[in-house]
Amino acid sequence: MDGEFIYSLVGFILFMGIVVLIFRDTTPKEVRTKAKKKAEILQKYNEQLSEALAPFARDREAFVAKKSALLKKISQELSQNIFFDEDEIRNIILELSLEN
């Protein structure tokens, strides 16, 4: 009786081990570095700014007003982001204001 129990227990453990090996997640996880995340965020804001300002290319006053509003919004969003400190935010806003 004890032998049957031990064989059953060993069989069950082997079965569970095989099930775990079969169903484990083998897809490689994409690990993004802090610098890459920052670059992606900045690229997104740059594209957003370019798209929003495209219709105002001929009207300078509207262009400046829209750009100012967007830069304030971006600054506020970046200040809530854990990846950026105040100096970085200031430099980013400066870069974005000079690009478009």
How are the SSEs ordered, and which strands pair?
Elements: H1 2-23, H2 34-53, H3 60-79, H4 86-99
Helix pairs in contact: 2-3, 3-4
The low-confidence parts are none
Question: What multimeric state do the chains show?
Answer: single chain
Q: For the terminal residues, how far apart are their CA atoms? A: 82 Å
- Kindly name the structural category: mainly alpha
Mean pLDDT: 87
Helix and strand run: HHHH
Helix count from the secondary structure assignment: 4
Total beta strand runs:
0
Globular, elongated, flat, extended or rod-shaped: what is the shape? Answer: rod-shaped
Describe the model.
The structure is a single chain. The protein has 100 residues and is mainly α. The chain has a domain at 33-100. The protein contains four helices and no strands. It has helices spanning 2-23, 34-53, 60-79, 86-99. Helix 2 packs antiparallel against helix 3. The radius of gyration is 27 Å and the shape is rod-shaped.
In short:
This protein has 100 residues and is mainly α.
Which descriptors apply to this entry?
about 100 residues; mainly alpha; 4 helices; rod-shaped
